[in-house]
Amino acid sequence: MTTDLTQTTTDLYERMRATNPLVQCITNYVAMNYAANVLLAAGAPPAMVHTPEESGEFAAIASALTVNIGTLSPNWVEGMIAAAKSANDAGKPWVLDPVAHFATGYRQGTTTELLKLNPTIIRGNASEIIALGGGQSAGQGVDSGDPVEQAEDAARTLATAQKAIVAVTGEVDFVTDGTRSVRIAGGSDLMPKITAMGCALTALTGAYVAIAPDQAFEATVAALANFAVAGEIAAQSANGPASFMIAFVDGLYTLDAPTFKANARITAQ
Ligand SMILES: Nc1ncnc2c1ncn2[C@@H]1O[C@H](COP(=O)(O)OP(=O)(O)O)[C@@H](O)[C@H]1O
Ligand SMILES: Cc1ncsc1CCOP(=O)(O)O
Ligand SMILES: [Mg+2]
Q1: Is 175 in the pocket of ligand 2 (CB under 6 A)?
Q2: Domain boundaries, the chain
Q3: What's the whole-model pTM score?
Q4: Domain 2-268 falls in which CATH fold?
């Protein structure tokens, strides 16, 4: 299965780069610029369209939608809900990134509303996924306080309850549909030192599921493997978080399919 999945994700990688899917990203103020540059370098044009006056209309045009709750305000929440409803109506996949959803009542309430709109994929760090599964996480803010392994049971439970793909990211990532599970190794320990890295990954996950809406599990694994391989390449030339940030965008841009295939470290559980 691992070999098959490596080939399948390499095929998805090639298709995503050849197809250039338009991804609507509703993300936070911190992440908007970096996430857009990451998407462009990886091969998918981003559109940051959030206001309710147009977010639903645009979701019907875009190939996929991603919603990240990092910096909330009422107008944005309205825009997120309108876009997710429209994506559902148009049969478009959408990805939820529940940034620090456990931190405040406002975030919790917004996340509950968004979960009712059936996200295709939920991508978060370990603390976020543990808390979504009803567990007690050590997270206090946007960064994880828990190891990925501790979130695996919660991820399976959440995936089954939501009928969604759940991705838990960290040193070694974990993806499940509730039945099948894989781990993706790679990346760099500089990645958690850069804000918006997870938000950018959520945006890229939208690009993959856009081109393979019927293979959401494989699309999620491909997005995470793309990040892991580009992250390893970037780490070879980076001197710290700032130069890594730039090298990572270049790493995504210069990557090719043989390098993806040779370096993706995907193992079935
Ligand atoms: N210690 C680490 N080693 C390698 N890759 C990491 C590490 N921590 C996070 N990553 C990678 O950074 C990206 C963002 O994940 P994460 O930091 O968990 O998200 P968030 O920024 O939402 O907390 C993912 O591609 C993940 O694999
Ligand atoms: C710092 C910060 N504060 C609110 S959203 C945000 C960015 C979080 O980015 P990520 O989840 O990718 O680390
Ligand atoms: Mg995050």
Answers
A1: no
A2: 2-268
A3: 0.98
A4: UDP-N-acetylmuramoyl-L-alanine:D-glutamate ligase (3.40.1190)
